[in-house]
């Protein structure tokens, strides 16, 4: 199921700086969430396992089943929205997983994704948005006038944006230290610019769902791309400093504004 992955020299240096103990594996099969039996196989290669658990009171009644499972006592590795690379600190040492869906990804961008995972581990941010919002997730659920699945998507996006405000500061240092990775970071951002700038029109015309727009805008934050309203309010020091409280207030104001239009 898992095979140790060799890293490029540049990615190896980023791991050495940010997450020197992290293990990296290629996965044989794709996944959103690993079946518990497979996740527990990590016990053979790590020193310890400590599943993340959260109070059920943090979850709204209609929370997706996978989110309820993540909050429970099972070792849950990988969640919807993780993308091609997933990481977990529920193991000691941490583990980074490369999914088969990366096949065909240009090597420079794949190196960036791996380096990003090590940077996020080094930032010691929560592994999932539930650890970011905590009991404020129910407040976000009340603020977001969407179904449970879309609310999950918005929450994951907002968390991604908050992490991006921190990780991009590390990425910017690569211009002096790891030019190839810096170029990959900037190139990925350049590919997003036109899509991000057109988000308000796409949402207004019904061409893009609000949750999808939030996901794209928040993904752009780590690339330091200028965001249109209402997402520009997330690209601020205030969001970085106040985190979940700010995210909930942003959602309240945004959906109140949408209801008035």
UniProtKB/TrEMBL annotation:
<dbReference type="InterPro" id="IPR055515">
    <property type="entry name" value="DUF7089"/>
</dbReference>
<dbReference type="Pfam" id="PF23363">
    <property type="entry name" value="DUF7089"/>
</dbReference>
<protein>
    <submittedName>
        <fullName>Uncharacterized protein</fullName>
    </submittedName>
</protein>
């Amino acid at each position: 199921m898992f095979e140790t992955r060799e890293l490029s020299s540049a990615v190896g240096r980023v791991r050495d700086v940010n997450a020197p103990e992290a293990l990296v594996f290629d996965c044989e099969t794709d996944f959103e969430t690993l079946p518990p039996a497979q996740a527990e196989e990590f016990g053979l290669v790590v020193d310890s396992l400590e599943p993340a658990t959260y109070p059920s009171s943090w979850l709204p009644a209609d929370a997706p089943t996978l989110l309820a499972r993540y909050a429970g006592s099972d070792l849950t590795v990988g969640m919807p929205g993780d993308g091609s690379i997933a990481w977990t600190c529920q193991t000691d040492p941490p583990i980074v997983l490369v999914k088969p869906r990366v096949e065909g990804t240009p090597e420079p961008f794949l190196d960036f994704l791996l380096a990003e995972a090590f940077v996020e581990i080094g930032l010691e941010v929560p592994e999932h948005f539930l650890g970011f919002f905590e009991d404020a997730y129910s407040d976000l659920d009340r603020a977001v006038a969407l179904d449970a699945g879309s609310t999950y998507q918005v929450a994951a996006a907002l968390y991604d944006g908050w992490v991006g405000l921190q990780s991009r500061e590390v990425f910017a240092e690569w211009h002096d230290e790891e030019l190839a990775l810096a170029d990959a970071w900037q190139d990925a951002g350049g590919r997003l610019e036109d899509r991000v700038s057109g988000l308000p029109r796409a949402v207004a015309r019904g061409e893009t769902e609000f949750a999808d727009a939030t996901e794209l805008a928040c993904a752009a934050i780590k690339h330091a791309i200028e965001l249109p309203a209402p997402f520009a309010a997330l690209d601020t020091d205030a969001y970085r400093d106040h985190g979940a409280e700010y995210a909930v207030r942003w959602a309240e104001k945004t959906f109140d504004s949408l209801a008035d239009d």
